[in-house]
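Now for a sample.
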Amino acid sequence: MLYIDALAPATQLLDTALQRLRALGGLLDLLEDHPAASASQWDLARWSTTLRMLHADAQALLEAAHQRTLEELPG
């Protein structure tokens, strides 16, 4: 479960989103190198669950950062 401090500065939210996206990219790199023929359905399900979680985290953080940026704009 990802908890987002909605009052955090946009830069902190963006930094955390970038961490999630980098982790997602790293896992995708590993998956690309993982021979599909040797992957069991259980392995693929675990990969999928982890990738979806990182994607959802990054998306939620980016949305929160976007909202926070709009709130920080003058006027």
User: Anything to note?
Assistant: The mean pLDDT is 86.
